Amino acid sequence: MMVLPNSQPPADNLPAKAVRALQEELLLTPKPGLVDAHNSGAHHDMDHTLFTRSITAISPWFERFQQLGQEQAYLPADEQLSTLRPMGLACEQAMFDATGGVNTHQGGIFSLGLLCCAAGRLIGRQQPVDCNALCLEVSEICKGIVGRELTTNNSASARLYQAFSLSGARGEAESGFATVRHYVLPYWYQDHGNRQRHHALLRLMAVNADTNLVSRGGLEGLHHVQQAARQLLNRAWEVIDIYKMDHELIQRNLSPGGSADLLAVATVLADYLPATTEYRLRTLP
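User: That's the sequence. What structure does it adopt?
Assistant: Structure tokens below.
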């Protein structure tokens, strides 16, 4: 068991933390298959400049997500998503306007927008805002979303769920970001700086059923990335190993975008860990 230190900021800083988390995720270099300061990863329609422009465009919306949650703090949780969705779509449109139609941050808008809304609801009810409360609130807001949205329609996300039972970002949100809570946050303070975030990203890549990878490389692509990440985690990896993995994933046209989104979620939640919370360190499956 390990007790994590309390570095909890004021609750109303969460929108700013969300923006900073996106900036830090972009700055982290190298990132296997992903856009970073060194290259565009496995993407041919994105680069560092485009991501920076996208973050600038969507940043003001995170305070709006929190404000909406605060204004509707007593709205039943299962009704919150329907009132939040139009604002989320407007934020996505701001992203598309800034990027010329390229989807740079749709997953980040969804996950971080939910966290901001959850914070607003907790603030509005004058309840403590910590990691556990935020994740529980997001889970309550998203209760049933996988069943409602992935079992009946013919979207790309629904097809992956129907074929492989991969629930993607919706499943992570409905679970209260269980992958982050179980496999990343307990290890967060074992390192610092870029190594802290590289280690978190590798752990996410090792366990996350990333639908971005399946879309590009099928289940074989997903399993390849998971195995490669586990191999690095099982030895004393160095940054040069991350560069090598980046080159390999670019050659295979694989991009773990879902794990990048969860890294931003982890960066936010790490600042809301209560000092008294104990975590059992979980080994990778």
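The first strand starts at residue 2 and ends at 3.
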